[in-house]
Design brief:
The chain is built from three helices and ten strands; from the N terminus they run E-E-H-E-H-E-E-E-H-E-E-E-E. It is of the alpha/beta class. Helix 1 crosses helix 2. The longest helix has 18 residues.
């Protein structure tokens, strides 16, 4: 599928699934090496990171755990600028190595809020792992240690990312066609 139509927008393939999976494996290899003795807790941010988290976890070979948190800051294609926690963290994070698994870091506002929330629970360390990073859109100073791919500031859909809740099921990543 080169072109897809979702609601009122047309998207074209920008990153095919095979390329995505190659980069996911590179990130998993780094995490396996860096955290071999840590037993990290992966906190996947729903809804967008579910495909990335699933593919990443299949490649993690070290002892670890995974849990999920749901935050929201988007409406349609526009970030609302405010983040509200929808489903909280139930695990005891005290003394744990935590790896936040996110689909995309663009402004960094969601990630900053997530780190602040986690920080109050006394983790040993907090690491950020994202499928996609939009460096030119970043507004917050963040140490994003594990980045599968950097992308330009385009609106994208697929591989867990949505346009108004549609398109998450697409295997490739698509960019909106203006």
């Amino acid at each position: 599928m080169d072109i897809v139509k979702i609601k009122d927008k047309t998207f074209k393939t920008s990153i095919p699934e095979a390329e995505i999976l190659k980069h996911v494996k590179e990130v998993a290899d780094r995490i396996n090496r860096d955290m071999a003795d840590k037993n990290p807790l992966f906190l996947a941010v729903l809804n967008g990171s579910f495909m990335f988290a699933a593919d990443l976890m299949k490649l993690i070979t070290i002892p670890c755990e995974i849990s999920f948190v749901k935050l929201a800051s988007y409406q349609g294609v526009i970030s609302t600028g405010s983040v509200r926690e929808v489903i909280g963290i139930n695990e005891n994070l005290s003394g744990r190595t935590v790896v936040i698994v996110e689909d995309i870091v663009d402004t960094g506002l969601t990630m900053k809020r997530m780190i602040e929330s986690i920080g109050t629970r006394n983790p040993a360390s907090v690491h950020i792992c994202t499928l996609l990073l939009k460096p030119e859109k970043l507004q917050e100073e963040l140490d994003v240690e594990y980045v599968a791919m950097e992308i330009p500031n385009d609106f994208i859909v697929g591989y867990g990312l949505d346009y108004d809740q549609q398109g998450r099921n697409l295997r490739d990543i698509y960019t909106v066609v203006e």
